[in-house]
User: Fold these one by one.
Assistant:
Number 1:
Amino acid sequence: MQNIEVIKPLLNKMQQRALLVGALGVFATAVGAFISPEQFFKSYLFGYIFWTGLTLGSLAILSLHHMVGGGWGFVIQRVLESGTRTLPLMALLFLPILFGMKELYLWARPEVVSTDAILLHKSAYLNIPFFAFRAFFMFAVWAVFVFFMNKWSGAQDKTADDSLSEKLRSIGGPALLVCFITITFASIDWVMSLDPHWFSTIFGVMLIIGQGVSTLAFAIIVVSRLAEHKPLAGVIQKKHFHDHGNLLLAFLALWAYMGLSQFLIIWSGNLPEEIPWYLHRLQGGWGTLAILTVFFHFIVPFFLLLMRGNKRSAKVLSKIAMAIILVRFLDLFWIIMPNFYPHGFHIHWLDFAAPIGIGGVWVAVFVWQLKGRALLPVNDPRLIEVFAHE
Amino acid sequence: MNDASKATELYGVMAEFDSPELLLEASEKAYELGYRKMDAYTPYPIEALPEAVGFKKPILPRIVLIGAIIGGCLGFFMQYYASVISYPLNIGGRPLNSWPSFIPVTFETTILLAAFAAVFGMFALNGLPQPYHPVFNVPRFALASRDRFFLCIESEDKLFDLTKTKKFLSDFKPKDVYEVEP
């Protein structure tokens, strides 16, 4: 179980491929940035929000796992930990957003704010220095949790010290709480404030749950690939995939619950300061996208994941998970892009290039981190019961 | 009385095990051999045991799904009937069939009927309530709710043969093997 050398060639290949795709994507995005800088920032934000969601989702689900400690979590613990260690990369990749603030956010343009009473009122919170400070502060807070969770877990591999499990368990709860608060603010700052007049209190949780969906789907894809090869072949059992499938189903249902709650309240209220957000997103091509999202982000995977057989087969489950990653892009595209193009559907080749570029680099860093440690927390005293007879 | 006539009078043969692993092994072997009419009794749920004694495809999930679908449809059309057909009212200019506001109640009735289907379906499939069951004729069977694991092969099974079945069960290191009075 400990020997990671057997699978190194496969991981190396994955890393090289991801790096190649990432390099091509980054090159294309850089070209796009020169051709049409205004479109570049929009597409870049879209790609950035998805991939940073995987990093933060990894941190949140890792915290949840340390708090509750189920078998499902031990199997994906190293995948999640590697996901959190992409945080420095995402902090670095945040810089272009800082440079593009005036392109992206209405409230960052003094000429707009000075003529708008509401934005003038909100400028105590929505202003450039405070926005940058909040981003810096949140990355610092996340970095603290990422650092200690990875440090203690890695130390246990070497020292087999049982007390480290206790430390990880006690940091899980606070970390999850802090994650919820900080990611809510991040969602408000980075995404919700794209439409600075609009507000929704459930918005942050909606994005957090979406990140949970993406992260679980991503972890399922990675673990199902790892389970095909030594050293994990035969170690990861059907019951683990069954648990992951159930969790994914729960997260999807929660996502639908949040989405419907926001829609129901705003639709019922029908107030002029809230309803435009949906009016823009339900007409023309955006409306079609909304219906597609409801079907493929909830209804279809809900019924697929109700069926036991689909959850117990790693192959089928990972296919469902890949489809869910695609609809996560669809959902974020539908949330972000109508802010810039409220009057009709609009797509640009940079909307593909930027997520692929960021994604390639993200996956390359992820795999690089994954192969640095054993694929399971081998010295955790709780691991024995995870692989008990099914 | 010879063994054959005694066998038809008995409810079955029961073995008492110390550990879930022994019980699981005995159940799997019994199923492999062709025994079908048998049941295992344990103080807590044991994964894979239902499959071992032959519950390959539980039908309760399907009953619950049907209950959920009926509940969802009833819940939605109850509201549709009330606000579109029976008593149409213009509320704030919204359409009569304001489906978004019907969703919460539809959701609740879906859960309600699914839960009813789960509970009552479980009762029906288990044949509950059942005031008498022969397994309690074995005095030590009370330990099934404490720390012992029991496997009972019933005499209705085609392969049942008092001596052979007893012999088969005693191969798995049981604490004891009992004959269960009807």
Number 2:
Amino acid sequence: MSQSHPPEIELARISELKGSKELEEHLRWCSWCRRTLADYGWLQGEIEALLEAEAEAVPVPQPNWQSVRERMGRAERRNKGREMLVATGAALVLCLMFGAPSILGRRAEAQAVPASGVVTAPAPVSIRDPVTSTRPGAEVGGISVSGQSREEARTSLPFVPIPTPPTPQG
Amino acid sequence: MTENGLESTRLADALEGDETAQRALYEAHHASAFRLAYLLLEDRLDAEEVVQDAFVYAFRHLDQYDPDRASFWTWLRVILVSRCRNKRRRKQLPRISLETLMAVGQTPAETKEASDPARALERLDMRRRVWEALQQVSDGARDALILRYYEGLPYAEVAEILGCSSEAARSRVVHGKAQLRGLLTAPEERSAPESGAVRPAEAG
């Protein structure tokens, strides 16, 4: 015969499942523990009856399928909106991931090109009257300018200039 | 067609998006779901809201339901209990006494003993005490007690719904019962006689 009482939680436990041999032996002799165990059995019955009674007593509302349907629709719309937002965000991130480096890269390349490599248009050559502005013997645009007088130069032109009429005097 | 067969057909149709099948499933389980939610939340409006939430979630995630693992009701119950716990956490439920319920005309259903007024009164008083004590038990233990003693579930299912091991589910029930007994019994009745002073039980 076991002389010491098991802890109360142990008695609560064996109301749910069988206890050890030692505990069962103790219960055969100990009226206090048997009473506690009986209390747990009674309590279980009370809980079952109470819950059953409460559940039965509560008036169950009519099933409202329309409301469930509306909620489903709302949830669906919310979900679609969320998906759109995620897709837009993802597209933006992809654009930034792939677009930004190429844009930045181009800018960086442009900065990295050496000055000698830059193709520049030849500076415009000022066209001036070779006769009046150059000395004889000088070269203008690779053409040798001979030391001719204005008259000689005029006659050597490939066309004949139209004579201008004399301005009337008085 | 058997009940299971009918439900399987409805589930297959509901999965295809058939609204009639979804509605049939909703109407078949609505009352049970509502009663369970009411016991867990102690509020009719909250219970109805949570039931609708649970069905909306269930129908939108029906593709995740595995009929080989559990029945639709078991799966729905997992969703429902989880929603109830979330609701309770958000609201930090005020506890309602049975007197309050009686004041608004919600008395527990009368038993067969109603014919004996004295016994009926005694029983009602005891039930009131148990109900009040049940409201003081910790949430986890209370959920386990309701699933175990109202739904009559084995520990494995209680564990699945509460998301814990079978041993933990059993432990919650045991502790819930111990808490209840503590609340219902006077301290002097609960203290065991001195160790070693064990009296042999009376015969019979």
